[in-house]
Design a protein that fits this description.
Helix content: 40-55%
Structural class: alpha/beta
Number of helices: 10
CATH topology: Undecaprenyl pyrophosphate synthetase
CATH superfamily: Decaprenyl diphosphate synthase-like
Number of domains: 1
Strand content: 5-15%
Strand order of the largest sheet: 3-4-2-1-5-6
Number of strands: 6
Radius of gyration: 18 Å
CATH class: Alpha Beta
CATH architecture: 3-Layer(aba) Sandwich
Distance between the termini: 23 Å
Length: 235
């Protein structure tokens, strides 16, 4: 495959709408979304995608939704990250797990414990990279980076903020630029400044498929379509 993307970011939208269409509890939609993600991660490894980033939950998902739904999400996160930490595929593929966002401030103790376990058990891997954005907001990330830069360099005269300086202070500082963004769910819009710095040159794919129905086959087809397009980057 020529022009294969190195870094793919996914906005997995549509769990709740998937459940409502089937007259099922919202929690069922989130559980099915987690199952879909497992299949996509496996396919990404099979296709040798080095960096996969998934928006696991937005900041507003955690702060604005009902206590019942948030508790359901916490239970799924606790179970899922524990599974990642112990899965033989994680270690066979040498997958480094990163989790970025406000999760340490806002998640339940059980979810945080499982997330930290996945991070620690995979910290020394580098062959493959799986990043989750949890309690994440891209505007929040950018504001935090600017505040950090100002605090670090407040006593330096004529200090210049360059793209390199900005990137070095983002939560995503050790991730490469995103090549391809896939948003499921049929709503072709951006949300909360999602990875605004890192997606500046990315190709965007919006699919009508709701996330629990997004298959490995559609994922691979999207990557194949990307690989056939010449990226000119303004040249």
């Amino acid at each position: 495959m020529k022009n294969k993307p190195t870094h793919i970011a996914i906005i997995p939208d549509g769990n709740r709408r998937w459940a409502r269409k089937r007259k099922l509890p919202i929690g069922t939609g989130h559980n099915e979304g987690a199952k879909s993600l497992e299949k996509i991660i496996e396919k990404a490894h099979n296709l040798d995608i080095k960096y996969l980033t998934v928006w696991g939950s937005s900041l507003s998902n955690i702060s604005n939704r009902s206590e019942k739904e948030v508790n359901t999400l916490m239970g799924i996160f606790e179970k899922y990250f524990k599974k990642i930490a112990s899965a033989k595929e994680t270690h066979q593929n040498e997958v480094r797990v990163r989790v970025l966002g406000r999760w340490e401030e806002l998640f339940s103790s059980g979810a945080k414990k499982s997330i930290n376990e996945a991070i620690e058990k995979t910290r020394n891997y580098s062959r493959n990279n799986l990043t989750f954005l949890m309690a994440y907001n891209g505007t929040d990330e950018m504001v935090n980076a600017v505040k950090t830069i100002c605090q670090k360099h407040k006593n330096k005269q004529n200090f210049k903020i360059t793209p390199v300086v900005l990137k070095d202070n983002l939560w995503t500082h050790d991730l490469p630029p995103v090549d391809l963004v896939i948003r499921t769910g049929g709503e072709p819009h951006w949300s909360a400044g999602f990875m605004m710095f890192d997606v500046s040159e990315a190709r965007l794919c919006f699919t009508e498929t709701l996330w629990p129905s997004f298959s490995p086959q559609e994922f691979e087809k999207t990557i194949n379509n990307y690989s056939q397009i010449e990226r000119r980057f303004g040249k």
